[in-house]
Design a protein that fits this description.
The structure holds two protein chains of two kinds. Chain A is α/β, with parallel strands linked by helices. Chain A has ten helices and 19 strands. Chain A has helices at about 10-25, 40-45, 55-70, 70-75, 95-110, 120-125, 150-165, 205-210, 275-290, 335-350, and strands spanning about 5-10, 30, 50, 90-95, 115-120, 140, 145, 165-170, 175-180, 185-190, 195, 200, 220-230, 240-245, 250, 260, 300-310, 315-320, 325-330. Chain A has an eight-stranded mixed sheet with strand order 5-6-4-14-15-16-13-17. In chain A, α1 (about 10-25) packs parallel to α7 and α3 (about 55-70) packs across α10 (about 335-350). The radius of gyration of chain A is 20 Å and the shape is globular. Chain B has a single domain, classed as 2Fe-2S iron-sulphur cluster binding domain, sarcosine oxidase, alpha subunit, N-terminal domain (Ubiquitin-like (UB roll)). Chain B is mainly beta. Chain B contains one helix and seven strands. The chains are: A alpha/beta, B mainly beta. The interface of A and B includes residues 233, 294 and 298 of A.
């Protein structure tokens, strides 16, 4: 088999890149994924979409992605509602220091057109009436943040890409990338040999391994982040409530269930996606402390998923001098789903050698050659 | 319907207790669950499906499904099949998914 490009990873980033390339007229695009669609990090994510970031690049990526999501269903001509709900993110500061940082972040977000406002604890109560404000110093609220169904959004891109002629192989693992003189020659999978000169690595939790297949050293690691979902109830909470100091994000999805997660600060760097009773215990305590009525709800399911993390917790969207024809959209540090539209647009521009929509030199893998990183994203749970 | 005669088991005299179901006075016996008492009185429709509002009755009887969820003493989403009946309980059919604010 021959292909113009092989995309490794059929999660949200992979389908978005495939769609954008095909829309621009590229033919013979092939996507491989070793799992079922949304079996990786996409289907395991918290389904939140936010623009409240602490670095300029993340703010820009998020804003442009939201702009796409607002009309995604029509643009992709999808037959179902993708459950995009814009009821905001309420970011809660519980320490003085966090309150000061949030002030700077609001100014940064406003500078690129993100409508974030700073709120007092009392004003926060008007948005989430059951919030426990005892420990809340201040809050920030962006009304255009929200929720989106990862399964439907991925399928929407997949269906649109398929209509444009993209070929997908799910449950088919890539075993080897054959290179010669730092040039891509061939991709070997469990069932196919594909002659190609271009490869895109959007393998999520396994992107480091897919890098090494072509001799590309990508400074990312994977870490398990756990999450749970409760039984559904009538709607009581519009926005996602998130606190970096309390280590929690929690939102009520349109179906009525609450989805919530937190980081394990001792998490090991590996491919574990299991779930633990320690998480259940800590998560329940944190959630009930901040949002007391949730204590009455039963947990129906919990699971884990990989965050693929870079040293500055901002994604790598670039080509590389380590191998010609090798491209990557990796290291989203837990936020690949919400950045997917812009990932697809930017990578398709890099691949087709067009001028990128925004200057993305700061997202290039080469930034890590300089040991003094210029910016670090603190707004991560 | 209750089994009164059984080839192996014996059912001694049981203590009657009272509760209300959607405002109506009902009775059961000590040892009943809310759902078993309702079932014995011939009440088959315990809840409605969330989306299409179709009737849901006594189904798994071990607290795994959500078929018997009702509002008991103002608490929504109570699994009545594993909740022991108490004298004076107020049992109501639940509308929708239940509002956690009512108990908060």
């Amino acid at each position: 088999m021959k292909a113009n490009i092989v995309i490794i990873g059929g999660g949200i980033s992979g389908v978005s890149i495939a769609y954008n390339l095909a829309k621009k007229g590229m033919k013979d695009i092939v996507v491989f994924d070793d799992n079922y669609m949304t079996g990786g990090a996409t289907g395991r994510c918290g389904a939140g979409i936010r623009q409240q970031w602490g670095t300029l690049m993340n703010c820009k990526l998020a804003k442009m992605s939201i702009d796409f999501f607002e009309t995604a269903q029509e643009t992709l001509e999808y037959h179902r509602d993708v459950e995009f709900k814009q009821e905001g993110y309420l970011v809660v500061a519980t320490t003085k220091k966090e309150d000061e940082i949030s002030e700077k972040n609001v100014a940064l977000q406003n500078s690129v057109g993100i409508p974030t406002q700073k709120l007092t604890p009392k004003e926060a109560l008007t948005i989430v009436p059951h919030l426990n404000i005892d420990e809340v110093v201040s809050a920030t609220f962006c009304p255009t943040d929200g929720h989106l169904n990862p399964f439907l959004m991925t399928d929407a891109y997949y269906q649109a890409a398929k209509k444009l002629g993209v070929t997908f192989f799910y449950e088919e693992k890539v075993i080897e990338i054959v290179t010669k003189d730092k040039q891509i020659k061939k991709v070997i999978t469990e069932h196919h040999e594909v002659f190609t000169s271009k490869v895109v690595n959007v393998a999520g939790g396994y992107s480091r391994e897919v890098g090494l297949m072509a001799g590309v050293d990508i400074p990312v690691f994977s870490e398990n982040h756990e999450i749970l979902v409760t039984e559904p109830t009538e709607k009581i909470q519009g926005p996602m409530v998130i606190s970096f100091s309390k280590n929690i994000y929690c939102q009520q999805v349109p179906h009525g269930s609450f989805i919530m997660g937190r980081s394990d600060l001792q998490a090991l760097h590996n491919h574990d996606i299991g779930h633990t009773h320690q998480f259940l215990d800590e998560m329940a305590k944190t959630a009930v402390n901040l949002l007391p009525p949730l204590g009455d709800l039963r947990v129906v399911r919990q699971w884990g998923g990989s965050y693929n993390i870079t040293p500055d917790r901002q994604p790598i969207i670039s080509d590389t001098d380590q191998c010609s024809g090798y491209y990557m959209g990796v290291g989203f540090s837990g936020h690949g789903f919400m950045f997917a539209p812009i990932t697809g647009i930017l990578l398709s521009e890099i691949i087709l050698e067009e001028k990128p929509t925004i200057d993305i030199t700061k997202l290039h893998i080469d930034r890590f050659k300089n040991k003094n990183l210029q910016s670090y994203e603190t707004n991560v749970v | 319907m209750r089994i009164k005669k059984h080839p192996i088991l014996e059912f001694g005299e049981q203590t009657k207790i009272h509760f209300t179901y959607n405002g109506k006075k009902m009775y059961g016996y000590i040892g009943d669950t809310v759902a078993s008492a309702l079932h014995a009185l011939g009440i088959r429709r315990l809840s409605d499906s969330i989306k299409l509002k179709r009737p849901r009755g006594f189904y798994c009887a071990i607290g795994n499904c959500a078929s018997c969820n009702m509002v008991v003493n103002d608490v929504p989403n109570v699994r009545t099949c594993i909740t022991e009946l108490e004298d004076g309980m107020i049992v109501k059919t639940q509308e929708g998914k239940g509002n956690v604010y009512e108990t908060f």
